[in-house]
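To close the chapter, one final illustration. This time we ask the reader to focus less on the individual chains and more on the assembly as a whole: which components sit near each other, and how the overall shape emerges from the parts.
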Amino acid sequence: MQKETLVPGSISEEELIRLVDTYSGVLLGLCRLTLGDTAMAQDIVQETFLRAWKKGGFRQESEKAWLIKVAMNLCHDYHRSRWWKHIDHKASIEEIQITEPDPADREILALVKELPFRERQIVILHFWNRMTLGDIAQTLGVSQSSVFRGLEKAKKRLKIELEGG
Amino acid sequence: MKATELQKALESSITSCQPSDYWKNHMVRQIVKGEEMSKRTKLSTGIILVAVLMLVSAVALAVGILVNDYYAKVAEMDASGALGRWNLEDKITFVRTMQECGFEIDPELYQTAMNENVPESQREEAANRIVDATYGALIRQQQGYYISEPEDSFGVAPDPVIVFQERYFAEHPEPIDDTPEGRERLLAYTDALGYYLRDTYNPFYMQAHEGQGEMPEKTEIDEDGAVECLKGYMTEILGWDPEEVEHMTPDVEWDETYRMWTLSGEVSAASMEKVTDRRKGIEPTLEGSFIEKTEKGYRVTILVDEKGNWSLEYQDKEAFRKLHIDDAEPVVRIESNEAMKLVEQAIMQKYHLAESELNVLFCDAVPAGLGENNEQMYLMKFHTHYQMNQEMKYGAVINLATGTVEAVFSYETEKWPDEGLRLLDYCAEREWKEGWYFHWSTDSKETLVRKMKEIGMLPDHEFWNTKKPSEAQIDALVAEAFGVPGYPSAVNAAVMIQAVAGPADSWDWTTRCLMEYLIEKYHIHSDSLAGKIAGGSEEVSQETAAEKVKSAVCSAWNMPEGSLQDWQCTVQLVQSPTGTQHGSMVFYRVFLTRPDSELGQDTFGGKDNFNYRILLDGTIVDSTMVNGWYSPAEDAQRWGNNE
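The assembled structure is written out below.
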């Protein structure tokens, strides 16, 4: 994954619209799965795009990685604070349409949601986004060995067959 | 579960959200126009602190806490992570501390918790009940966030903030002293609590609200705003009935001299009873406090200034005014674009460059010192270089909070540690030509240690008089120099640089940037390993690694331990090339091969060969397994060729 690099200047409104069109759904799903809360996921996605806008953009090839990194770190910040349980949640179903997963997936997702927060993030990034452990470490701002350990523990908890892991 | 199933489930969940065009357009419009983002979640800004401060007092008095070092002990547990782990051992320690400090504890429960002959589950249950009796219900009642969630890692451990507050009441069991001295004392405590909370939560708080770490500049409020402050205080802080508060008529008085309102509101006794429910029969400590008992119920009075700051402790306007006279300035004074201009000016001035000379350079920026805890998040590090040439030209560090330039330097003209550079150059060249350190020829290794000696990395030793040192002697010296005893492979750029530039924590910004650049540039590969081992991880032996792998394989295939006893096992120490997912790591490869006598059996999924990577600290990284039989030597050979 490319190292985050900032480029002076700002992105255009058209560019922002493209980014929102392309990534808002994925980021929303990612944050919702990570935090288990649609309203908070919406706020984090907004915040992520706002940061992209304020930062003035990023190199084309790493925009997805950059957005995921910021969103994941915001999820972590939200989660880390106990204040987040002290929040009024006002998700609007008109704003987001959510397709229910099929029963088999639901079962697996329930297990994923039971993982400790960091392990959940690692599993999502590794298995969904196919990120290498080094890239995950960079994204989450933790050491590579923490990621190894987190993934190992998560695999054990999820009882993932080693051939797949 | 199969990895592919997990992948599919994650994919289906992540792609299950379809934001409406309305929401997307609304978001874009707000961002582009700089409007305040409408949030779906609203952080309750009222810190529960004060309510707990008031309400806990009754409990503190009731239990008659007598010792002063209670908080210190709990703070120590908190610092060591005990309140985060909150396992049986931690709970027992905590309960013992409570007992020693004079908490009233059910003796039967206490005995059960302390009795090592009782099953652990029962001891834990007893400990939970003891803690819950003092903290749990109170916390759950007053602070909705205090819900036990396994992934939260907070469990049901008592909140150190509450413990802190209890300390105050342990030391000051008398009713709140409403004299100037008493207020001063209370202020000192609440200040300390405030700092605690601020230091704990503020980084998040600022980010969550402002995204860029800016503190919102407070705008002036009108009378309606002041009334909202009072109502928010009554509901969010005191926990009084929102409906009743909404319909009450507050008394409001504006003082032009001090530019603040005095507001008071009243609720029925029932509203207070709801929040003191747990302590039925115990009258809240009100004498001399900011809440007075009235005929109808309870009345609270607060001061609110024109910026919406409100005061509980201060009923004295002069003191309240002084408290907010130095209101926090917005933390970030300049944006990165403005910082960029500062960088350009500073570089042009220091190095006598024309604007045109600077314009041909490409400039990028990264946060400087941004750690997991978001420390120093306002420092930005800028580099300039030619776009087609990644060699750095100039650099600067800007503090966005103060708008000041912390350092400006040239990557080319600053004084570099020559002997260190020669060493780095040499290592980089050897790695390029010969690969990892342990593949180097003895001559190359010997040259390395002699260069290390030149910069003082190696002490005087009879080794230097040896005409033809053995490879083992050289390896031992290298291992010693890099702080990885018993493991000679860790040639580490950071350690080498520190040998010439002093310890990293003594570097100023210029040195730090230069050295970070060198480390990045030379990228000599064993850094992470050296850090890992120097950080205290125990290195496992080849035998242990093999046992761990065997155990993992048995467990993964639901086979009894020892089922692999007859399998042939080969262990190799290898180092992966850079760029793979485990780049720059050194690890063991463990090859397991089914013995002839078991060929054709369907145990272990019918696989005949397993090939695991396991880190030196014993963490199993990944595995490959093969259908079809290879001898251990063949298997090692096949994989060895790919290292």
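Chain A has two domains: 1-98, 101-165. The domain at 1-98 of chain A is CATH 1.10.1740.10 (Rna Polymerase Sigma Factor; Chain: A). With these observations in hand, you are ready for the problems at the end of the chapter.
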